């Protein structure tokens, strides 16, 4: 849970900063909220798994690899459905269901911003699946936004520092 909170907050702060830095300051507040909510499906799945464990509906313990697999495979759809059930705006539902898909709409700038901030979180280790070798400059999202290596390096620093000083 703490790692999920750190990731969500870091992605939100990074997305807000990236919106401003890439010429979309008008989307900064929405980018923050999109970054904060994009993995809400993971939170819902963790709650379900915890409820099963607490009610002792299974005699087996859930291993960390199993939990991670469930989160990776199911969180987008679960988050999308949860957000729809809460009647959240469609742009946030769209982020929840499309933030990992290979065939994303590059014209949906809000989605592009959150996707790139999420990848930057992966690169700096603020995710359950860190990817330190990720070349953000090669990401299609970086191309869509027209950001350079300097902006991407600054984004990494913003994300690394996003939750410093907070009790997460």
What does this 3D model show about the protein?
This protein has helices at residues 2-21, 28-37, 40-54, 64-85, 90-98, 109-124, 140-145, 149-161. It has 168 residues and is mostly helical. 66% of the residues lie in helices and 0% in strands. The protein is built from 8 helices and no strands.
Q: What is the arithmetic mean of pLDDT?
A: 93
Span of the ends, CA to CA: 9 Å
Q: Biggest sheet: strands, sense, closure?
A: none
Q: Given the structure, what is the number of helices? A: 8
Q: Look at the helices and sheets and give the structural class.
A: mainly alpha
Shape: globular
Percent of residues in beta strands: under 5%
Helix content: 55-70%
| SSE order, one letter for each helix or strand | HHHHHHHH
What are the segments in which pLDDT stays under 50 over at least 5 consecutive residues? none
Number of strands: 0
- Give the radius of gyration: 16 Å
Record the SSE blueprint.
Blueprint: H1 2-21, H2 28-37, H3 40-54, H4 64-85, H5 90-98, H6 109-124, H7 140-145, H8 149-161
